[in-house]
């Protein structure tokens, strides 16, 4: 799981290195994906990725990750076949979201603003960047945790997809102003048309009242996905405490964030960061940890929280 995370971060670093052109980033991203489409080592391709990207890394952690990319790929190839296949699948699906960002949003500023057109595109995007992670997580833990052997893997993977989509929708509504000013409108124009808005209108903080019905629709959709995530969490055996906490924390913190997004008067101001304060983060972590990820306590918290959101 840790290695899959590092490989996903490496792909994300390739896609986000904006000091090189989009076409070049797409080329490197596809070169990276090719490393998982066969069992042969391609050292020249990895060296090409490093040569093209390392000079542009200002973040030390991302630089170290790219430097150690050959070690990550070597470790991946030592895994047993089932784990390799699961990681291979993830590395084939997850970069589709990065590719969508690079192709659907060709600009990088408000002057070059582009938008998704249909709700189906938004749903597909949230699957690529987060929903597929829920599916991967499910299949991986079912393969390795004896307590999970009773799960219907296909059914729970589908619920895991909803879980991931809910978290990603939360990120989208939370970061809407920042994304708009970076040239990306994830709100489908089909929805904006319903209230007489264009993507560029959202650059004006004063358009929030007109936009609010669409915002609340996206928030309700996120909550519905997170409800499925909570069902997923409660289906985990009670003694799988670490797994339960790993699911409880993002759901409860997403709920705390959505509660603030729904009422934020300055949501469309890119200088404002709407999120749960650190004190709330500590409270959520303490409550769920000290009660041993108790389902009754967590469910009561989530139930009260979701009523405050919608």
TrEMBL record:
SUPFAM superfamilies on file: Terpenoid synthases
Residues spanning the signal sequence: none
Parts forming coiled coils: none
Keywords noted in UniProt: Membrane, Transmembrane, Transmembrane helix
InterPro entries: Isoprenoid_synthase_dom_sf, Squ/phyt_synthse, Trans_IPPS_euk-type
TM stretches of this protein: 280-302
A Pfam entry, by short name: SQS_PSY
Name assigned to this protein: Squalene/phytoene synthase family protein
């Amino acid at each position: 799981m840790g290695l899959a995370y590092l490989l996903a971060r490496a792909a994300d670093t390739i896609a986000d290195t904006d000091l090189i052109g989009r076409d070049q980033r797409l080329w490197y991203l596809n070169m990276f994906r090719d490393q998982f489409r066969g069992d042969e080592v391609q050292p020249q391709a990895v060296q090409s990725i490093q040569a093209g990207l390392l000079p542009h890394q200002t973040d030390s952690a991302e630089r170290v990750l790219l430097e150690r990319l050959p070690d990550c790929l070597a470790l991946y190839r030592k895994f047993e076949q089932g784990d390799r296949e699961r990681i291979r699948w993830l590395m084939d699906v997850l970069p589709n979201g990065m590719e969508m960002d690079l192709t659907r949003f060709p600009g990088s500023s408000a002057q070059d603003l582009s938008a998704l057109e249909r709700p189906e595109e938004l749903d597909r995007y949230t699957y690529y960047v987060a929903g597929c992670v829920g599916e991967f997580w499910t299949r991986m833990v079912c393969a390795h945790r004896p307590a999970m052997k009773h799960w219907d893997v296909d059914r729970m993977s589908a619920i895991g997809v909803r879980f991931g989509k809910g978290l990603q929708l939360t990120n989208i509504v939370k970061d809407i102003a920042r994304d708009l000013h970076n040239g990306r409108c994830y709100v489908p124009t089909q929805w904006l048309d319903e209230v007489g808005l264009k993507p560029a209108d959202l650059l004006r903080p004063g358009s929030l009242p007109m936009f609010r019905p669409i915002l609340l629709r996206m928030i309700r959709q996120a909550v519905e996905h997170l409800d499925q995530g909570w069902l997923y969490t409660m289906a985990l055996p009670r003694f799988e405490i670490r797994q339960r906490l790993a699911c409880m924390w993002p759901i409860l913190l997403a709920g705390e964030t959505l509660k603030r997004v729904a009422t934020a008067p300055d949501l469309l101001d890119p200088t404002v960061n709407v999120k749960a304060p650190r004190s709330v983060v500590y409270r959520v972590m303490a409550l769920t940890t000290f009660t041993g990820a108790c389902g009754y306590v967590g469910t009561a918290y989530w139930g009260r929280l979701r009523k405050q959101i919608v």
